[in-house]
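Recall from the previous lesson that a structure prediction takes nothing but the amino acid sequence as input. Here we apply that procedure to Pentatricopeptide repeat-containing protein from Xanthoceras sorbifolium. The sequence below is the only information supplied.
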Amino acid sequence: MGSKSMFKWSKQITPAQVVKLIRAEKDVNKALVLFDSATAEYANGFKHDESTFGLMISRLVSANQFRPAEDLLDRMKQEKCSIREDIFLSVCRGYGRVHRPLDVMRVFDKMKQLGCEPTQKSYITVFAILVEENQLKIAFRFYRYMREMGIPPSVTSLNVLIKALCKNSGTIDAALRIFREMPKRGCTPDSYTYGTLINGMCRLGKIDEAKEWFKEMETKGCSPSVVTYTSLIHGLCQSKKMDEAMGLFGKMRSTGIEPNVFTYSSLMDGLCKDGHSSQSMELLEMMVSKRYTPNMITYSTLINGLCKEGKLQEAIKILDRMKLQGLKPDAGLYGKIITGFCDICKFKEAANFLDEMVLGGISPNRLTWSIHVRIHNMVVQGLYRRDPNRAFHLYLSMRTRGISIDAATYDSLVTCFCKKSDLQKAARVVEEMVADGCVPDEGTWSALVAGFWNQQKVLQATELLWVELLRKSVEPEVGIQNKDKLSQAERCSAL
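The prediction returns the following tokens.
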């Protein structure tokens, strides 16, 4: 085969040599070629053993190449090479990582077929993956099967069971019952047990109970981990108990436990929602000084909070910082900044960010469709008084890109062009409005007809009115809701 000529093996191939070469090869496909080329030298009597098979399977799983990895498991059986359970578990964990719990179960069943008897470790690993993946029905069934197979309860297995029962409010009492019974089963709850209960309580909004467990945990000599502290801090922030959350943050740092990105993000989110975005900015600086890289959630939280407080310049600085880090702002973030500028009647600045968003290739999808529609219409309706040409170009861009246009947007453009005596554009907008199935209201028609009368184009005006009367498509109530509520643009013009 071609791989034989690719690499020249020494006369005496050893598993250690093969392991070293596979480890050194960064490309997993080339590593597999090396693996196969070693067995092509069968005249030298080389046969893969557990170490070479195990490493190659592990490399394939890390690269999400599960089919070739499972083929090697079958080959181990054919070549009468004993298969340790750790090799199977590496495949199970790989499937868990890519959210394929049913494949985890299949590989677990395959263990016995390939002559490897699963131990307690295998059962608990598979059980933990099922719980992590929220496959709770299968997880509880599997736990019963574990017990039937004679696997005794251990702190690890009961911790996983408690975690599963903490996921729903209906089963939290069962989790507490098992926790209380642990000593009777010869198992002492550890930091992980308490952490699991505290996390479950916080997720279900039972923050006072979580605080009690936290106190009990310390009296029992169990040290809270960064995950437990973060769960409780997040729960306190969600319950708007910011002073307590900040106090706990201080206590955590004083005991030498380093906060992680999630701790900082939870606090920043709570502070921003509480109207303290400047404190949130201080936390960002602290986080960066500790060499933690802010993520999309961190930046979104800050930009949202700053925009809510009208601190748009600071929000733009954070947006720029985010882009410098290589993170691409989404429609939601641009939407916050654009809305912020519209709220203070700075429609040209809003339009600049809308252009930046479009040029950045951020197109509407199923989830962001309503955001795109809302901000585009908002900007056109605000911009038409100050820069009608730009408003019209933005309107044309919306049509080209298939973004829905509100009746109020059509109305504002028609009114604007009629006042400026640009009747050609006004008539075009009305035509397109009707073509889109949006019925012009009385105000739109009145503006257009008045425009033509002013230009003494009585014939065209009469024809338009005549067409309108013939169609009888104008319902007085259609579009009148737009008159009832003052639009943002009208409010701004009144300032």
